[in-house]
Specification:
This protein is an alpha/beta fold and 229 residues long. The protein is built from 8 helices and 12 strands. It has a 5-stranded parallel β-sheet with strand order 2-1-3-4-5, with helices on both faces. The chain has a 4-stranded mixed β-sheet with strand order 8-7-6-12, covered by helices on one side. The longest helix has 15 residues, at 107-121. Residues 121-224 bind DNA.
Length: 229
């Protein structure tokens, strides 16, 4: 089993080019980034199904990048790096990587590691992992029981996601719900900042993964059951 999309973050251009070609032959759509900041600046940064991460990267180092990814996505993360030592293994696994491969490594081994991790992450979420929006109290109830006080804008956004039942919600629909005008062209509508503040509000309150992700050229999606109560 392989993911549909994969981000390859490695500054070794020759290595990443040939690895990307090999994985694409396995049916995976690969996007290459030679700088961790380039990935984080991408509108699809947290929407890939899988991530292959080197540790020695320009910009944010590999370990910090894994920590950032783990706050935004439950996608598979495999480290492929030339750094050795038990302390390195401990560091990357603690940061949230699923597997650690040491260069030099055969492309077939990388492909097998991706398939093994993907089998785990592709399992459906537990049936009781339900998020709830309490409209009476204006709180979001996390599956672990944490209750998070929401702003009015937060509540409006989450009502949209609850109504969408796991489907993506367009930027236009979210802006309409917030009572904002849809801008022409490239004008900043402020929606990204509003979504960011909502994510940060949840992240500060609970270690539970926030299932709110961007959907390239569409809008945003809440990838977990969300009920109105």
């Amino acid at each position: 089993m392989h993911p549909k999309t994969l981000a390859l973050i490695d500054d070794d251009a020759e290595y990443s080019e040939f690895l990307a070609q090999y994985l694409q032959e396995q049916g995976i759509a690969v996007s290459r980034f030679d700088d961790s900041n380039a990935l984080l600046a991408s509108p699809d940064a947290f929407s890939f199904d899988f991530y292959l991460v080197d540790l020695m990267l320009p910009g944010v180092n590999g370990v910090e990048l894994i920590k950032i990814l783990r706050r935004r996505t439950d996608a598979g993360v495999v480290v492929v790096s030339g750094r050795l030592g038990p302390e390195v293994f401990r560091e990357v696994i603690t940061a949230g990587a699923d597997m650690y491969l040491v260069k030099p490594v055969q492309f077939e081994q990388v492909s097998l590691a991706i398939a093994a991790v993907q089998r785990r992450v592709a399992k459906p979420a537990a049936a009781d992992a339900v998020w709830k929006l309490d409209r009476a109290s204006g709180e979001l109830v996390v599956p672990d029981g944490t209750r998070i006080q929401l702003s009015e804008a937060d509540r409006q956004l989450l009502e949209c996601f609850a109504a969408a039942n796991g489907e993506p919600v367009t930027r236009e629909a979210l802006l309409h719900k917030l009572g904002r005008e849809v801008p022409d062209g490239e004008a900043d509508d402020g929606l990204s900042a509003t979504i960011y503040r909502l994510r940060r509000r949840i992240e500060r309150a609970t270690p539970t993964l926030v299932p709110l992700q961007s959907k390239s050229r569409v809008g945003y999606v809440f990838r977990a059951p969300l009920q109105l109560i």
